[in-house]
Amino acid sequence: MAGELALVADILSIISLFVGIFFLSVGMIGLLRLPDVYNRLHATTKVGTLGAFGVLLSILFQEGATPMGIKAFTVGLFILLTSPISGHMIARAAYRMGVKLCAGTCLDEYAGQRKD
Amino acid sequence: MKRRLIIYMGLPVIWCLVSGQVTIGSIFLGFIFGMVVVQPFSKLYRMDEVVTPTGDWLAKIPKKLVYFYVLIKEIIKANIVVAKIVLSPKIDIKPGIVAVPIRTKTNIGITGIANTITLTPGTLTVDISDDQKVLYVHSIDSTDPQGLRESIRDDLEKYVLEAFE
């Protein structure tokens, strides 16, 4: 019974590891392929979150409720909490520094809203 | 109860999670670290404000669970959408910044809706207006700004309003 449980944990761990690595790779490809800062942030904030969460979830499945597993889960929760905030701060800072939107942009309702 | 006391009680729990073990020693260590870490930030938060913990917060826990379910569903959807865009042979996107009016009033509600927007498909919060009524959202597909506003209002803001306000 214990052996079967370990096998299930191994399979879940490998699946989540592959999902995590796949999405992290997609995030990095997106960083290279997408045209400007704002679109690249789409790739890193969203895809990075699920990618990192997948890898950490794989550690949790492998280790169970040991100190290492709990640590991995906590780190995952913090990434979930901080990644959108950092994305928002980078986008805002970029816009205020005057980084232009890319050529295909068809709408900008933020223009002229900030005087400083 | 003062907010400072609640934070002093909460930080040892986080330290236990980060260090991965729940012992008397790690709770004590977390308590000391918590007091040291809080000190530089005490000007940013109203530490001496009296907070009354009410049953209202507990009553909203089912709503919060629904919100987290929606959030996880949206995160997975967002990842698939972005992966599709990134892996398509020719990147064909029409990005733009859309002004989205919001109904949330409290700080925690605004933070919640802004973070949820960032983690959901094709949208990224850039800034909030000075009167805290309009969010500026960068969208990867802004051909239909009205539809985007409606989808944020109906699909996301409803849950945030129920869970946090």
Sum up the structure in keywords.
heterodimer, A: 116 residues, mainly alpha, 3 helices, elongated, B: 165 residues, three-stranded antiparallel β-sheet, 6 helices, 61% helix, globular
Kindly summarize this structure in a few lines.
Chain A is mainly α. Chain A has one domain.
Write the layout of secondary structure elements.
The complex is a heterodimer of chains A (116) and B (165).
Chain A: H1 2-33, H2 37-63, H3 67-96, E1 107-108
Chain B: H1 3-19, H2 24-41, H3 55-59, H4 61-87, E1 96-101, H5 107-119, E2 123-128, E3 134-139, H6 145-164
Antiparallel strand pairs in B: 1-3, 2-3
Helix pairs in contact in B: 1-2, 4-6, 5-6
What can you tell me about this protein's structure?
The complex is a heterodimer of chains A (116) and B (165). Chain A is mainly α. Chain A has one domain. In chain A, 77% of the residues lie in helices and 2% in strands. The termini of chain A are far apart. The mean pLDDT of chain A is 83. Chain B has two domains: 3-53; 63-164, no CATH class. Helices cover 61% and strands 11% of the residues of chain B. Chain B is globular and about 55 Å long. The interface between A and B is large, with 48 and 39 residues.
Beta-sheet strand percentage of chain B? 5-15%
Q: Number of helix segments of chain A?
A: 3
Q: How many strand elements of chain B? A: 3
Number of strands of chain A: 1
Oligomer: heterodimer
- What profile does the largest beta sheet of chain A have? none
Q: Biggest protein-protein interface?
A: A-B, 48 and 39 residues
Evaluate the radius of gyration of chain A. Answer: 19 Å
Give the averaged pLDDT of chain A, no decimals: 83
The general outline of chain B is globular
Across the major sheet of chain B, the strand order is 1-3-2
Structural class of chain B: mainly alpha
Q: What percent of residues of chain A adopt helix (DSSP H or I)?
A: over 70%
Order of helices and strands of chain A: HHHE
The overall average pLDDT of chain B, rounded, is: 81
Q: Could you describe the largest sheet of chain B, including whether it forms a barrel? A: 3 strands, antiparallel
Count the domains of chain B: 2
* Shape designation of chain A: elongated
